[in-house]
Amino acid sequence: MVMPKPVTPTPSLRCHFCEMQRLRGVFALAADKLVVSGPGYQCTFQITGWGWVILLTGLALGAVALAVFLMA
Q1: Among 28, 31, 49, 67, which one has the highest count of C-beta atoms within 10 angstroms of its own C-beta?
Q2: Number of domains forming the structure of the chain
């Protein structure tokens, strides 16, 4: 029985994911408070740290995509 090859994302798709991650990180840093409210309660979350994590992940994904483009 022949097993199918696993599908891997193309370099251009990796760049798209990179840009999405960087935008999410920038938005999380710009609006550092997230307010969730419902009937009778309100919660506020600080998301600045999460913004940095997402931003750095996006930069790492961009570096990987660039390396794949240069190696291809």
Answers
A1: 28
A2: 1
